[in-house]
Amino acid sequence: MESTKLKLLLFLIILCCFQFFSVSSFEYQVGGDEGWVVPPANDSKIYNEWASENRFQVGDTIRFEYKKDSVMEVTVQEYNNCNSTRPSFFSNTGNTVFRFDHQGPFYFISGVSGHCEKGQRMIIKVMAPEESDADTSKSSGSPAADSSLGVSKLVFVQFVLRFLSILIC
Ligand SMILES: *[C@@H]1O[C@H](CO)[C@@H](O)[C@H](O)[C@H]1NC(C)=O
Ligand SMILES: *[C@@H]1O[C@H](CO)[C@@H](O)[C@H](O)[C@H]1NC(C)=O
Questions:
Q1: Cα–Cα distance list, 59 to 3, 51, 102, 126, 140 (Å)
Q2: Considering every ligand atom, which ligand is closest to the CA of 87?
Q3: Apex CA 63: angle with CA 61 and CA 67, to 5°?
Q4: Which residues have C-beta within 8 Å of that of residue 136, sequence separation ≥ 6?
Q5: Residues 24-76: tens digit of each pLDDT
Q6: pLDDT tens-digit readout, 76-108
Q7: Domain limits of the chain?
Protein backbone atom coordinates (compact mmCIF):
# COMPACT_ATOMS: atom_id res chain seq x y z
CA MET A 1 0.00 0.00 0.00
CA GLU A 2 2.65 2.43 1.15
CA SER A 3 4.89 1.72 -1.81
CA THR A 4 2.05 2.30 -4.25
CA LYS A 5 1.63 5.77 -2.83
CA LEU A 6 5.32 6.43 -3.13
CA LYS A 7 5.33 5.28 -6.71
CA LEU A 8 2.44 7.58 -7.46
CA LEU A 9 4.24 10.47 -5.79
CA LEU A 10 7.37 9.72 -7.74
CA PHE A 11 5.43 9.56 -10.96
CA LEU A 12 3.83 12.95 -10.29
CA ILE A 13 7.18 14.52 -9.49
CA ILE A 14 8.71 13.18 -12.68
CA LEU A 15 5.76 14.53 -14.60
CA CYS A 16 6.34 17.94 -13.04
CA CYS A 17 10.00 17.85 -14.01
CA PHE A 18 9.19 17.16 -17.62
CA GLN A 19 6.54 19.84 -17.73
CA PHE A 20 8.91 22.33 -16.19
CA PHE A 21 11.39 21.74 -18.96
CA SER A 22 9.06 21.43 -21.89
CA VAL A 23 7.01 24.57 -21.24
CA SER A 24 8.74 27.51 -22.80
CA SER A 25 5.65 29.42 -23.94
CA PHE A 26 4.10 32.25 -22.02
CA GLU A 27 0.53 33.34 -21.41
CA TYR A 28 -0.27 37.03 -21.49
CA GLN A 29 -3.32 38.49 -19.82
CA VAL A 30 -4.96 41.21 -21.90
CA GLY A 31 -5.84 44.38 -20.01
CA GLY A 32 -4.67 43.23 -16.58
CA ASP A 33 -7.37 43.27 -13.90
CA GLU A 34 -9.81 45.17 -16.09
CA GLY A 35 -9.68 42.56 -18.80
CA TRP A 36 -10.85 43.10 -22.37
CA VAL A 37 -13.12 46.16 -22.11
CA VAL A 38 -13.83 49.41 -23.93
CA PRO A 39 -10.89 51.59 -22.88
CA PRO A 40 -11.48 54.95 -21.20
CA ALA A 41 -11.97 57.79 -23.71
CA ASN A 42 -8.78 59.52 -22.61
CA ASP A 43 -6.73 56.32 -22.95
CA SER A 44 -8.02 54.68 -26.12
CA LYS A 45 -4.62 53.35 -27.23
CA ILE A 46 -4.13 51.34 -24.05
CA TYR A 47 -4.10 47.91 -25.77
CA ASN A 48 -1.58 48.77 -28.45
CA GLU A 49 0.65 50.46 -25.91
CA TRP A 50 0.54 47.33 -23.80
CA ALA A 51 1.16 45.12 -26.84
CA SER A 52 4.19 47.13 -27.93
CA GLU A 53 5.78 46.66 -24.50
CA ASN A 54 5.78 42.88 -24.80
CA ARG A 55 7.74 40.38 -26.84
CA PHE A 56 5.26 37.86 -28.17
CA GLN A 57 6.63 34.68 -29.64
CA VAL A 58 5.25 31.79 -31.63
CA GLY A 59 3.64 29.37 -29.19
CA ASP A 60 2.72 32.05 -26.66
CA THR A 61 -0.92 32.55 -25.76
CA ILE A 62 -3.01 35.51 -24.71
CA ARG A 63 -6.04 35.33 -22.47
CA PHE A 64 -8.98 37.68 -22.92
CA GLU A 65 -11.38 37.98 -19.99
CA TYR A 66 -14.59 39.94 -20.53
CA LYS A 67 -18.31 40.13 -19.90
CA LYS A 68 -20.95 40.61 -22.59
CA ASP A 69 -18.30 41.11 -25.22
CA SER A 70 -16.35 39.08 -27.75
CA VAL A 71 -12.96 38.67 -29.39
CA MET A 72 -12.33 38.51 -33.12
CA GLU A 73 -9.21 38.04 -35.14
CA VAL A 74 -9.51 39.96 -38.41
CA THR A 75 -7.43 41.22 -41.33
CA VAL A 76 -5.61 44.54 -41.26
CA GLN A 77 -8.29 46.16 -43.45
CA GLU A 78 -11.04 44.86 -41.19
CA TYR A 79 -9.09 46.08 -38.17
CA ASN A 80 -8.74 49.56 -39.65
CA ASN A 81 -12.44 49.71 -40.55
CA CYS A 82 -13.72 47.91 -37.45
CA ASN A 83 -15.37 45.48 -39.82
CA SER A 84 -16.63 42.48 -37.86
CA THR A 85 -18.54 40.68 -40.62
CA ARG A 86 -16.00 37.96 -41.45
CA PRO A 87 -13.58 37.28 -38.60
CA SER A 88 -11.10 34.43 -39.02
CA PHE A 89 -11.51 33.72 -35.30
CA PHE A 90 -14.45 34.48 -33.04
CA SER A 91 -15.13 33.78 -29.38
CA ASN A 92 -17.62 35.12 -26.87
CA THR A 93 -17.19 32.68 -24.01
CA GLY A 94 -15.95 35.39 -21.63
CA ASN A 95 -12.61 33.66 -21.22
CA THR A 96 -10.75 33.21 -24.48
CA VAL A 97 -7.25 31.84 -24.86
CA PHE A 98 -5.69 32.49 -28.24
CA ARG A 99 -2.45 30.83 -29.32
CA PHE A 100 -0.05 32.47 -31.77
CA ASP A 101 0.71 29.76 -34.29
CA HIS A 102 2.87 31.80 -36.64
CA GLN A 103 4.96 34.94 -36.63
CA GLY A 104 3.75 38.29 -37.92
CA PRO A 105 0.95 40.65 -36.95
CA PHE A 106 -2.37 39.55 -35.44
CA TYR A 107 -5.33 41.94 -35.43
CA PHE A 108 -7.97 41.68 -32.72
CA ILE A 109 -11.18 43.63 -32.36
CA SER A 110 -14.24 43.46 -30.17
CA GLY A 111 -17.21 42.09 -32.08
CA VAL A 112 -19.69 44.22 -30.17
CA SER A 113 -21.07 47.08 -32.22
CA GLY A 114 -19.27 50.35 -31.45
CA HIS A 115 -16.60 48.91 -29.13
CA CYS A 116 -13.85 48.64 -31.74
CA GLU A 117 -14.40 52.26 -32.77
CA LYS A 118 -13.91 53.30 -29.14
CA GLY A 119 -10.51 51.66 -29.07
CA GLN A 120 -11.21 48.07 -28.08
CA ARG A 121 -8.83 46.70 -30.66
CA MET A 122 -5.24 45.58 -30.64
CA ILE A 123 -2.37 44.69 -32.95
CA ILE A 124 0.04 42.04 -31.71
CA LYS A 125 3.31 41.47 -33.50
CA VAL A 126 4.58 37.97 -32.99
CA MET A 127 8.33 37.51 -33.34
CA ALA A 128 10.20 34.79 -35.11
CA PRO A 129 11.03 31.72 -33.01
CA GLU A 130 13.74 32.30 -30.44
CA GLU A 131 17.16 33.33 -31.66
CA SER A 132 18.81 30.12 -30.48
CA ASP A 133 16.45 28.12 -32.68
CA ALA A 134 17.16 30.39 -35.63
CA ASP A 135 20.90 29.91 -35.12
CA THR A 136 20.56 26.15 -35.15
CA SER A 137 18.85 26.21 -38.50
CA LYS A 138 21.35 28.64 -39.98
CA SER A 139 24.71 27.22 -38.98
CA SER A 140 25.57 23.55 -38.99
CA GLY A 141 27.95 23.92 -36.03
CA SER A 142 25.44 24.58 -33.28
CA PRO A 143 23.39 21.39 -32.92
CA ALA A 144 26.01 20.37 -30.35
CA ALA A 145 24.75 23.13 -28.07
CA ASP A 146 21.27 21.75 -28.48
CA SER A 147 22.15 18.23 -27.46
CA SER A 148 24.23 19.41 -24.49
CA LEU A 149 21.13 21.21 -23.27
CA GLY A 150 19.24 17.94 -23.59
CA VAL A 151 21.92 16.15 -21.59
CA SER A 152 21.87 18.72 -18.81
CA LYS A 153 18.12 18.31 -18.52
CA LEU A 154 18.53 14.58 -18.27
CA VAL A 155 21.23 14.96 -15.65
CA PHE A 156 18.98 17.20 -13.63
CA VAL A 157 16.09 14.75 -13.76
CA GLN A 158 18.42 11.94 -12.73
CA PHE A 159 19.67 14.07 -9.88
CA VAL A 160 16.15 14.76 -8.69
CA LEU A 161 15.29 11.07 -8.89
CA ARG A 162 18.37 10.06 -6.94
CA PHE A 163 17.63 12.69 -4.32
CA LEU A 164 14.07 11.42 -3.99
CA SER A 165 15.13 7.81 -3.73
CA ILE A 166 17.47 8.77 -0.89
CA LEU A 167 14.60 10.52 0.87
CA ILE A 168 12.24 7.63 0.41
CA CYS A 169 14.52 4.72 1.24
C1 LIG B 1 -8.44 59.59 -17.59
O2 LIG B 1 -9.46 60.19 -16.82
C3 LIG B 1 -9.58 59.69 -15.50
C4 LIG B 1 -10.74 60.38 -14.83
O5 LIG B 1 -11.86 60.40 -15.64
C6 LIG B 1 -8.29 59.92 -14.74
O7 LIG B 1 -8.38 59.36 -13.45
C8 LIG B 1 -7.14 59.28 -15.49
O9 LIG B 1 -5.92 59.58 -14.85
C10 LIG B 1 -7.10 59.77 -16.93
N11 LIG B 1 -6.06 59.03 -17.63
C12 LIG B 1 -5.21 59.62 -18.47
C13 LIG B 1 -4.22 58.71 -19.14
O14 LIG B 1 -5.21 60.82 -18.71
C1 LIG C 1 -16.28 44.00 -44.41
O2 LIG C 1 -15.45 42.93 -44.78
C3 LIG C 1 -16.05 42.05 -45.70
C4 LIG C 1 -15.09 40.87 -45.91
O5 LIG C 1 -13.76 41.23 -45.76
C6 LIG C 1 -16.35 42.80 -46.99
O7 LIG C 1 -16.96 41.93 -47.91
C8 LIG C 1 -17.28 43.96 -46.68
O9 LIG C 1 -17.48 44.73 -47.84
C10 LIG C 1 -16.68 44.84 -45.60
N11 LIG C 1 -17.64 45.86 -45.18
C12 LIG C 1 -17.31 47.13 -45.05
C13 LIG C 1 -18.39 48.05 -44.58
O14 LIG C 1 -16.18 47.55 -45.26
A1: 39, 16, 8, 9, 25
A2: 2
A3: 160
A4: 142, 143, 145, 146
A5: 789 999 998 899 999 999 999 999 999 999 999 999 999 999 999 999 999 99
A6: 999 999 999 999 999 999 999 999 999 999 999
A7: 25-130
Quote the DSSP letter at residue 43: G
d(CA 4, CA 15): 16
CATH code of domain 25-130:
2.60.40.420
Q: Are 97 and 62 spatial neighbours (Cβ–Cβ below 8 Å)?
A: yes
Please tell me the number of the ligand nearest to residue 39's CA.
1
Q: What is the pTM of this model?
A: 0.68
Cβ contacts of residue 132 below 8 Å, gap of 6+? 145
Atom number, ligand 1, closest to the C-alpha of residue 43: 13
Ligand 2 neighbours, Cβ below 6 Å, are 78, 81, 83, 85-86
